[in-house]
Automatic annotation (TrEMBL):
This is Kelch repeat-containing protein. Residues 893-974, 983-1066, 1082-1171 form the Bacterial Ig-like domain. It comes from Tahibacter soli. It holds the Pfam family Big_3_5. SMART domains: Kelch. PANTHER family: KELCH REPEAT SUPERFAMILY PROTEIN (PTHR46344:SF27), OS02G0202900 PROTEIN (PTHR46344). InterPro entries: Big_3_5 (IPR032109), FN3_sf (IPR036116), Gal_Oxidase_central_sf (IPR037293), Ig-like_fold (IPR013783), Kelch-typ_b-propeller (IPR015915), Kelch_1 (IPR006652). The keyword Repeat applies.
Length: 1193
């Protein structure tokens, strides 16, 4: 910020030294280190004598405590904070301190033992280099390296010169510069530059002045300041600068006083504080001075509270410097003091867009400031003024209702809750939330009690507790109610023990709420306090603060105490009184009075842990520009730069840059001006770490992940015992609502770099959730803040909606109203009873249970985010998860006999099945709608016909069970036995005869039909039984033998039967076969001879078919299979011969008929012929006539 108008710019007075708490043990020439948890350790050395004493400073409680003693006495030792958070001590012995276990452990000895007045330099690799020093018999030039990961020592070459009481500093390049010291009793000017990467020492340069007991300080630009020291017992004021770029030295401005045994500390703004030391042996320098590298000059920094030399001066995470121990003053070795380098200033920014006084201003995530109420008239209260930090511009935002004298609470979801207040002079219960991302405001549930000038406190679980205030008629009330943003409801809580308005309410570290002061129902100021326990919903009255007041400010300090300052007494007069409440006692104590009485001022807890009070009024009217800062560690108020404008009832908001935005208010008139107030947190930009993002989790996780730059700056080390920054970041988390803050250490078990930071687990486990500002502090230099949210588990979701099914259920739910400050990653749904769970990854709005046992269920859903699982929702509607029923079917008797009663029993399985059962036989109903009893239904029937029946049982299902059907049961019903007999009217019969087949069925009950079959061929079908018989007349039997059966099909009461097969013989029609010849019956052998056969048939026989064989009784076949033509067949043969051995003889010739399909075969009578031997025959002259086909005569 530049100052354009001198009248509108202010600068604070110079910083000063303030006495701190006393040490437990006296120390001088001790080793010192800033631990990664923000504590300070002093070890060994009392007045340069070896000692085992260890002191630990706890900044949160502002006290020194005895630490575990060293295993052996040490003097001139060094302490080095390691990357893993442990602390290495090197001296007469080698030890490592574990701050978590609070124990020392001896490590393997190095190559150089019994060492003192050496240097210890933490390298970029995390290893520690020990250089030079004094042994029992003089100086050493040894170099050795300690590896904390392997817990081993190794020699690492040596310097070119032995030296002790020298100084060392690591350059930005990673090289280590060693300068000065003492060798053989003489001061040295030699300089050596060690390159750890190559293990090489370059000793080509020298300082301009020989000096031991000097300090080396790495300046922001990379150069090195060598200051003071002594040469031959004479302290030096001279200083010189080393430029790594050229390797050369040049004189710098000399200090105002010669010093050796002093301490040099780099301040957040890049300047160097030099404190104490000796100007001559035994004479300590009381003054301190500051070197400004930019102007190469020294300015006085005032006198130390206690004159000291050989002390420690440790830059603290909040930017201040802690000085402890040393010699000089009689009390030096057991005392400590603080130096706060912050220099405040204020710069006018601009004219504001409206007129307001008594407005309420809060941070509006993601990067704005919200100002509401206190308007010049009621119309101003209908909109808010919004300041955009990134663009430095103002805009307006319409509200759902008018509010003034209300409360504004930044919820953990980033929205701002506006509750109650006055609208047109009337108390209202209305509430709304403002969304800084969408720049909109939406009404939410109203409070149960209209109220104004009440108090609102963001609770650790994300709810908001509203207490007291004034209602109609300006009467104070004691009521309290709780807003739950996740479900948008207000719930009454236990009322306070006394009605209060304009009181102060502060969330304590343990989650309780302290309420103090205010005015009662009669308008009288209260000298009382009480504390609320949210777990028990109970208020407990505390000891009275000792003063009645209202409209005071209350600020939670870093140590957990509460500073209550200013306010008004019963007469309406501003008060200068300040009190501190310690909840651990619990007790009140007086703090020093402020320089000015104040009311209607602003109070801001600075990241340094100090409290800044600005403006307000000190009299009956008007305003003041005055600013005071309270430092808890020294319990002291200090003046700071004035505001640019006098004002009261104004608003002040701490911005991420570390500046305060101060707006509005009233003095002699309205103050429509904004100003930036710098409380001294703007450090040297070259040394300022950068923080890009921060992710935080609470609710039992308590982790912090951050990314940025400059987390691991250039390292430094010296042997003076003055102490140095740890060169490791501490991340500070400061709650926006109540200012509660915590420093988070790096997790030694996770990777760490200059750009990545991982906090130790559980560091934030008990830190209240909600919007915070996160800063990285490195060697007392703060980064600009990043706005984040300490996330907790989401709010409970509303009761889900469940739908039942078969062995399954579907559960639908809506997102929670409050995600806990980080995105919901999924949902978990639990079934009751049984506890079955199903989950889904966001975005999702339902889950399905696919294999639930049957039963009645309700379901509870929980949202899940990175911080954990939310509390379960209210239970869903109850649903029935149906059983997948099944039916088993049994028959009382199977097979059964026709006419008997058969009982079918169907048993349904499932969830206590009710409903009905229907029994069917062959698809037709037997018994319908039979009610189940204990899951069982029965059907009795006598109506089943004989035979095989398909029986089924169908279950209707009910609310808890599905419908189902049994497997088919095959029921055999046996009928009355029957016997079938069969006779034929004529057997055998002749073809064409009429044959009557008669079946006789023998059984108890006659009825039904008979079928007659020729083998498988039906003859007569479904012939009704008459008197137990049935007949079938057949006239077309084919010739042959037929297997005739009678098949009785039975009926409803009689079983079927089949007769034995009847062999029905059907004969062919008779025929007559004759044979004749036209030839003479006496002839010579082997002459042609013709025969003719004739077949005569019955009338049904028709023209016979078939064939005729002509045979001789000699066995010869004369003609074979001569086909009939019109009933005759001819045969001409030359095969007729006399019987063998006879000259002549007779031959009998016969015709054999084969028969056909209806005519029987047969043989003719013999035809006898005489056959002559050719030798005995005298042929005639042939005058006789010849017959064709006949032999010659």
């Amino acid at each position: 910020m530049s100052c354009l108008l001198a009248t509108l710019c202010t600068t604070a007075s110079a910083a000063s030294f303030r006495r701190g708490p006393d040490l437990v043990a006296a120390h001088a020439g001790q080793a010192a280190a800033l631990l990664n948890d923000g504590r300070v350790m002093l070890a060994g050395s009392t007045n340069a004598s070896a000692a085992q004493a260890v002191d630990l400073y706890d900044p949160a409680r502002n006290r020194w405590q005895a630490g575990p003693p060293l295993s052996r006495a040490e003097a001139g030792a060094t302490l080095t904070t390691l990357p893993n958070g442990k602390v290495l001590l090197v001296g007469q012995g080698r030890q490592v301190f574990d701050p978590v276990a609070n124990t020392w452990a001896t490590v393997a000895p190095g190559t150089t033992v019994s060492l003192r007045r050496h240097t210890a330099t933490l390298l970029a690799t995390g290893q520690v280099m020990i250089a030079g020093g004094e042994r029992q018999f003089g100086e050493t030039f040894g170099l050795e390296l300690y590896d904390p990961v392997a817990n081993t020592w190794m020699p690492w070459g040596h310097l070119d010169y032995e030296r002790q009481r020298h100084a060392a500093v690591q350059l930005a390049s990673g090289k280590v510069l060693f300068a000065g010291g003492r060798r053989s009793g003489a001061a040295m000017s030699n300089v050596e530059l060690y390159d750890p990467q190559f293990g090489a020492v370059d000793s080509s340069g020298s300082m301009l002045v020989a000096r031991s007991g000097l300090t080396l300080t790495l300046l922001p630009g990379g150069k090195v300041l060598a200051a003071g020291g002594d040469d031959g017992g004479v302290s030096l004021a001279s200083c010189e600068i080393y430029d790594p770029a050229t390797g050369g030295w040049q004189f710098a401005a000399a200090m105002n006083a010669p010093r050796t045994g002093h301490a040099a500390t780099v301040l957040p703004d890049g300047r160097v504080l030099v404190s104490g030391g000796e100007s001559a042996p035994g004479t300590a320098v009381p003054a301190a001075e500051i070197y400004d590298p930019a102007g190469n000059g020294w300015i006085a920094a005032g006198n130390l509270a206690v004159t000291r030399a050989g002390h420690s001066a440790v830059p603290m995470p909040n930017g201040s410097v802690l000085l402890a121990g040393g010699t000089g003053d009689a009390s030096a070795s057991s005392s400590s003091e603080w130096f706060d380098p912050a220099t405040a200033s204020s710069v006018f920014d601009r004219t504001l867009p409206s007129l307001r006084t008594g407005a309420t201003a809060t941070w509006l995530p993601p990067g704005k400031v919200l100002v509401v109420g206190g308007g010049f008239d009621a119309d101003y209260d209908a909109f808010a003024d919004v300041f955009d930090v990134a663009t430095a511009t103002w805009s307006s935002l319409g509200l759902a209702a008018r509010h003034t004298r209300h409360t504004q609470t930044v919820l953990r979801n980033g929205r701002v809750l506006l509750a109650g207040g006055l609208s047109g002079g009337t108390p209202i219960p209305y509430a709304e939330t403002v969304n800084g991302t969408t720049m909109t405001s939406s009404g939410v549930a109203s409070m149960s009690v209209p109220r104004y000038l009440h108090a609102a406190t963001l609770m650790p679980d994300g709810t908001t507790l509203v207490t007291g205030g004034y209602t109609s008629g300006g009467v104070a009330v004691a009521s309290a109610e709780l807003y739950r943003p996740g479900v948008d409801t207000w719930t009454p809580r236990a009322p306070m023990n006394a009605p209060r308005g304009e009181h102060a309410a502060t969330l304590l570290d343990d989650g309780r709420v302290l309420v103090s002061g205010g005015r009662d129902a009669a308008g009288q100021a209260l000298d009382s306090a009480e504390v609320y326990d949210p777990a028990a919903d109970r208020w407990t009255t505390l000891a009275a603060p000792g003063i009645a007041r209202y409209a005071a400010s209350a600020t939670l300090l870093r140590n957990g105490s509460v500073l209550v300052a200013g306010g008004l007494d019963n007469a309406g007069t501003p008060l200068a009184r300040a009190d501190v409440f310690d909840p651990r006692q619990p007790a009140w104590s007086r703090a020093p009075d402020m320089a000015l009485p104040r009311a209607q001022h602003t109070t801001t807890l600075l990241p340094s842990g100090q409290v800044m009070l600005a403006g307000g009024r000190s009299g009956a009217s008007g305003g003041t520009r005055g600013v005071e800062i309270y430092t808890p560690e020294v319990d002291r108020w200090s003046p700071a730069a004035d505001l640019a404008f006098a004002r009261n009832s104004h608003s002040a908001v701490l911005l991420p840059s570390g500046h305060m935005l101060v707006v509005y208010g009233y003095a002699a008139n309205w103050v429509p001006f904004a100003e930036y107030y710098d409380p001294g947190l703007a450090p040297d930009p070259a040394r300022q770490p950068r923080l890009y993002s921060a992710d935080l989790l609470s609710a039992g996780h308590g982790t912090l992940r951050a990314s940025g730059n400059g987390f691991q700056p250039a390292f430094g080390g010296n042997s003076s015992g003055a102490g140095a920054g740890s060169n490791f970041p501490l991340l500070q988390v400061q709650r926006i609502d109540n200012g509660q803050m915590r420093f988070v250490r790096a997790d030694a078990d996770l990777p760490f770099s200059g750009m990545q930071f991982s906090g130790r687990p559980l560091e934030l486990a008990d830190f209240p959730a909600g919007p915070v500002q996160v800063r990285a502090w490195v060697n007392g230099v703060p980064s600009a803040a990043v706005n984040a949210t300490v996330a907790s588990v989401p709010a409970p979701v509303a009761a889900p909606t469940a739908t039942g099914g078969v062995l399954r259920a579907t559960v639908a739910f809506a997102p929670p109203g409050d995600d806990g400050g980080t995105a919901v990653t999924g949902y978990r749904v639990t079934a009751a009873p049984g506890g079955a769970q199903q989950s889904c990854l966001a975005p999702c709005n339902n889950v399905e249970f696919a294999s639930l046992p049957p039963g009645v269920y309700a379901f509870a859903a929980s949202a899940v985010n990175a911080a954990g699982t939310a509390a379960a929702s209210p239970p869903s509607n109850s649903v029935v998860v149906q059983a997948r029923s099944s039916v088993t079917l049994a028959s009382g008797v199977n097979p059964s006999r026709y006419g008997d009663t058969v009982t079918f029993t169907a048993t349904a399985s499932g969830l206590a099945p009710g409903g009905t059962m229907t029994f069917r036989a062959d698809g037709n109903a037997l018994c319908t709608g039979v009610a189940l009893t204990a899951g069982v239904a029965q059907c009795n029937t006598q109506t089943l016909a004989g035979g095989l029946h398909a029986i089924t049982a169908s279950y209707s299902g009910d609310a808890g069970n599905t419908a189902s059907q049994s497997a088919t049961l095959q029921q055999q019903v046996n009928t009355v036995d029957s016997n079938a007999a069969l006779v034929s009217s004529v057997n055998p019969s002749t073809y064409g005869d009429t044959v009557v087949l008669t079946a006789t069925i023998t059984t108890e009950l006659l009825g039904g039909h008979v079928g007659f079959y020729d083998g498988a061929t039906p003859l007569c079908a479904n012939v009704n039984l008459v008197g137990g018989t049935a007949s079938c007349t057949v006239t077309d039997f084919a010739v042959g033998t037929h297997a005739i059966t009678a098949r009785y099909g039975g009926d409803d009461d009689t079983g079927a039967s089949v007769s034995f097969a009847l062999a029905q013989q059907v004969l062919a029609l008779p025929t007559t076969t004759s044979v004749e010849t036209a030839c003479a019956r006496a002839f010579t052998a082997n002459q042609p001879f013709t025969l003719r056969a004739s077949i005569a048939t019955a009338s049904l026989g028709g023209v016979p078919a078939g064939s005729v064989d002509f045979v001789a009784d000699t066995g010869a076949t004369l003609c074979h299979a001569v086909a009939l033509t019109d009933g005759t067949a001819s045969c001409t043969t030359t095969d007729i011969a006399a019987p063998a051995g006879q000259g002549q003889g007779t031959v009998a010739i016969r015709a054999r008929y084969s028969g056909d399909a209806i005519n029987a075969g047969g043989s003719s009578p013999d035809l006898t012929v005489t056959v002559f031997d050719p030798a005995d025959v005298l042929l005639r002259n042939g005058f006789e006539a010849a017959t064709p086909g006949c032999p010659v005569r």
